[in-house]
Amino acid sequence: MKLLLTLMLFFSAQPFHPQENLYITYKGEPIATVNRAEYSIPLLGVPTLNTKKYSDFLNYLEEQVYEESKDAKISRSGEIQQEHVGVRLDKDKFTKLFYSHFFGKGDSLEVPIQRIYPRVDSELLSTIRVKKIGQYVTHFNSSNKERSTNIALSAAAIDSYVLFQNETFSFNQVVGKRTAARGYQPAPEIIKGELIEGIGGGICQTSSTLFNAVDLAGVKIVERYSHSKRVGYVPPGRDATVSWYGPDFLFKNTYNQPILIRAKVYGGSLIVTVYSSEDINYQPRKITPKPKKG
């Protein structure tokens, strides 16, 4: 806002050349037209930019230019899919250029952009996919289509996720809200000791498989809750229950290298594997099963 006011005061004092249109281009192609008469208001007899109209136009332009960045991923076949660098409108630079052109003689303006670099690139992935530091496998009934769908969706959400040094992984944050709109199906889940039908039932098998994999890798567990009732896909005490409005599963990478999570579904098996680079200084954890109650 301070930039707008400063530019308004400066350019309103300059000679105004009322050419009809100012053409906005991006990558050499026109994407918008600004009619000077429509964007001007008289102020003490001096043409001045209508800031409300300009603000709305700036929001519109942001939407037209914005491209989301995408992290590099590892495909199911094991190939690295290249990252994509995103772009956003450089609003400050555009505003300066816009005012100079609007009150000047220019009839076209190329949109300035800022690059949005992805969090994970292909070079990093190729480095941290080489050393397996933890793995765990659980099994489920693949004929239960609804539950299988929920497991597959949540596994895909954590697959290829990279956790950098000193970062904390949140299952709920990474997987996101489990809704019908996102493809999650109603399936049985345990709530307060009762087995009920709920959207996303079955994802606790994904979180529990992940817990065992990262725990075997010696990763620091920050927050984990067990179900109020025994589950059959992991040994007693080795589960991690999650709920969008309730428990989360958190762990932190305290190692000297990033770690890579791979999650795959093969038929009725869910496999979660943890990788890193050859330079990782890690300490695997030996898990001692709890004795069965007699």
Task: Report on the architecture of this protein.
This protein has 294 residues and is of the alpha+beta class. It has two domains: 2-116, Ubiquitin-like (UB roll) (Roll), CATH 3.10.20; 122-276, no CATH class. Helices cover 28% and strands 29% of the residues. It is built from eight helices and 18 strands. The strands form seven sheets. A four-stranded antiparallel β-sheet has the order 10-18-17-11. The chain has a three-stranded mixed β-sheet with strand order 2-1-8. A three-stranded antiparallel β-sheet has the order 12-16-15. Strand 3 (40-43) and strand 4 (46-49) form a beta hairpin. Helix 1 runs parallel beside helix 4 (91-102) and helix 6 packs across helix 8. The longest helix is centred in the N-terminal third of the chain and has 15 residues, at 51-65. It starts with a helix and ends in an 18-residue tail after the last strand. The model is unreliable at 4-17 (pLDDT under 50).
What's this model, at a glance?
The chain is of the alpha+beta class.
Please tally the β strands and state the result.
18
**Major sheet, described briefly?**
4 strands, antiparallel
Percentage of residues in helical conformation: 25-40%
Shape: elongated
Beta-strand level of the residues, as a percent range?
Answer: 25-35%
- CA-CA gap between termini: 72 Å
Count the domains: 2
